[in-house]
Design brief:
The protein has 14 helices and 23 strands. The chain starts with 6 loop residues before the first helix and ends with a strand. The protein is globular. The chain has an eight-stranded antiparallel β-sheet, with no helix packed on it. The chain has a five-stranded antiparallel β-sheet with strand order 5-6-7-8-9, with no helix packed on it. The chain has two domains: about 325 residues, Glycosyltransferase; about 220 residues, Beta-galactosidase, Chain A, domain 5, CATH 2.70.98. With about 600 residues, it is of the alpha+beta class.
Length: about 600
């Protein structure tokens, strides 16, 4: 059953990325190689000291602000114990893995980062989320944070000279940093009269993004889009502060239009097949729209706006009104742009609400200070609430389906890949009873393969089978799967009020077949899994979420707690598992495991 990856299979996988993307990447790398990139192999010596002043109106005391970056360093939406914010962080330190790296004298394009355990843990500090929290506290009357804000930015610049070191490697990181600086300027009402040093800092970032955006475009993900938003936003800010921003504006608009058209599907989904990256995409487009409004510049064209509106309704349909939770489907690196709200990291409502205000002109969630927090801080008009009923839906381009009634919600993932798959999760399902998540996805935990161990993004992290201890797709690299799957015999019927159905088959590179059928009625869910004979050993897993510290009780063919009962037609085993709701954080969960024999049929019934 062991199959080696041959050269033909590698080439076939790479070609699936698309000729345009491959050519764009090739030209970008060639320019680096022959020293034609103006921001490579180059440093800029600038002394920058003073960036912001307080011109804010005094905001209302009940404006929401997260308890982050107050007394502790914060990453991925949580505070790090044992740290403090009395002095600036060490900008090249991984505080989570306790590793410090010294690449400050290396040009960004000369750094070999194979020895860096997780770059994201270093980059997170330099996204400048803290500048927004400092600005919010200043606007609420805590004026001492103004000197702290300027001191930290000065310290960052001194320790991250352009264009050297880890924090200049990625243009998207530069873009997020720039967008947070612009958001900070809006909160402090500096945006129409910037200090000289802040203009210089923005210009340095814009040049890095402008000359490296081709790499982001070639990835066909959020990178090129967020970088384009940064170019547009930064260019507009410079233009209205007596600086030349024209070339950034032109390129930003062009790339935004192109990326939105290509990467947002007709069903509203996004090319990364990830709920969190979908939010990141929307937040980026929202800040771009805000900047155009603040300076009375033209927004996006009608076709772009329509695609964004579809993307808003897509993520809205997956988000619970009660708590803002969304199924943790797809990769999740902890990203949260413009963190202006006090809601938990995994509450999607403030981001959707802001986007709805900007692109639809009404609220999709109840108007309150939590849901509206991003809009309030950015000075965006709060529009009236429009109720939009959520229904069962098949998203053909995105490979997702929602089955719902008054008691259950099922989120079903099936293969439909125009872009590279992010996880080996085909035929996975998340299941909620009322608003309580019963069967869950593992999340991502880390993008470092040695840390992640292919658990969270592979079969073990999903409610699917695993055959002969291998995923149904092989990895060519950390972020590129081979053997892209296709849906076979997809059938669904959501029209019958009392019985909704969906079923789909897949066949992997070993010719192992799996067919899953889901039947939803008012009082139960029946999941039927059927397999062929092309494997030796198989395990079917159902991952049981932790619910208010309620214990799951295991029996021979049943597992239950006060929220749900799962019964099976075969004996089950209890195993320990993991889930990660936030990057670099994980918790133990119980997992049901069922041994699969060739030609097996396993029936699972879920009631409450």
């Amino acid at each position: 059953m062991l199959r080696k990856i041959n050269l033909y299979q590698k080439i076939l996988t790479i070609l699936k990325l698309g000729p345009r993307s491959l050519l764009t990447l090739l030209i970008y790398k060639l320019k680096l190689k022959i020293f034609l990139n103006p921001v490579a192999n180059k440093s800029v010596q600038l002394e920058l000291n003073d960036f912001f002043y307080d011109n804010s109106k005094l905001f209302e005391k009940d404006y929401q602000i997260a308890n982050l970056w107050s007394n502790n360093i914060s990453m991925y939406g949580y505070n790090l114990e044992g740290t403090n914010t009395k002095t600036p962080p060490i900008w090249h330190k991984d505080y989570l893995l306790n590793e410090e790296y010294n690449y400050q004298e290396y040009y960004w394009n000369k750094i070999i980062f194979n020895n860096i355990k997780d770059l994201k843990n270093i980059w997170e500090l330099s996204r400048f989320d803290w500048s927004i929290y400092f600005a919010q506290r200043i606007a609420l009357g805590n004026k001492k944070d103004l000197s702290k804000l300027n001191e930290w930015i000065k310290n960052w610049h001194e320790n991250n000279q352009p264009y050297k070191g880890i924090n200049w490697i990625c243009a998207q990181e530069s873009s997020i940093r720039l967008l947070n600086l612009i958001s900070t300027s809006i909160i402090l009402n500096n945006h129409k009269k910037l200090k000289h040093d802040l203009k210089q800092l923005l210009k340095i970032h814009l040049d890095k993004i402008y000359h490296t955006i081709e790499y982001g475009i070639a990835q066909n993900n959020n990178h090129g889009l967020i970088e384009a938003v940064a170019l547009l936003s930064g260019g507009i800010v410079l233009k209205h502060n007596n600086s030349n921003g024209a070339k950034y504006i032109v390129k930003g608009r062009k790339v935004i239009k192109d990326r939105v058209k290509k990467l947002i599907f007709n069903d509203g989904g996004f090319s990364q097949y990830s709920m969190n990256y979908h939010r990141l995409m929307l937040d980026g487009l929202s800040i771009g729209k805000i900047v155009t409004k603040k300076f009375d510049e033209n927004g996006f064209d009608k076709e772009t706006d329509k695609k964004i509106q579809d993307a808003i309704f897509f993520i809205y349909n997956f988000t619970q009104e009660k708590d803002g939770l969304c199924p943790n489907i797809g990769n999740n690196d902890g990203a949260k742009l413009i963190p202006l709200d006090s809601s938990p990291y995994n509450d999607f409502r403030p981001s959707i609400q802001l986007a709805a205000h900007l692109f639809h002109g009404y609220s999709l969630f109840e108007n309150n200070k939590y849901n509206n927090s991003k809009s309030l801080w950015m000075g965006i008009k709060i529009n009236e609430f429009h109720f939009s009923k959520k229904v069962s839906m098949l998203y053909k381009n995105s490979g997702l389906a929602i089955l719902r009634n008054n008691n259950f919600k099922i989120y079903f993932k099936y293969p439909s890949f125009d872009f590279r798959p992010s996880q080996a999760d085909s035929l996975h399902l998340d299941l909620n009873i009322k608003n309580t998540n019963i069967l869950c996805d593992a999340g991502s935990y880390s993008y470092n393969e040695d840390i992640e161990k292919n658990y969270f993004r592979g079969a073990k992290g999903h409610n699917i089978p695993e055959f002969d201890n291998k995923d149904h797709m092989r990895k060519l690299s950390n972020f590129l799967y081979m053997d892209w799957l296709y849906s076979k015999n997809l059938f669904y019927n959501f029209e019958e009020k009392n019985l909704q159905k969906i079923e789909c088959s897949i066949k992997d590179y070993r010719s192992i077949k799996h067919r899953r059928k889901i039947e939803l009625s008012n009082d139960k869910v029946i999941i039927t899994d059927v397999f062929n004979e092309r494997f030796f050993n198989g395990i079917l897993r159902f991952r049981l979420n932790n619910i208010c510290n309620t214990k799951w009780n295991f029996y021979n063919k049943k597992v239950e707690n006060k929220y749900a009962t799962l019964t099976f037609n075969k004996n089950i085993m209890k195993r320990n598992g993991w889930k990660s709701d936030s990057y670099m954080k994980k918790e133990k969960i119980d997992v049901v495991e069922i041994d699969i024999n060739p030609n097996d049929k396993i029936v699972t019934t879920i009631t409450f």
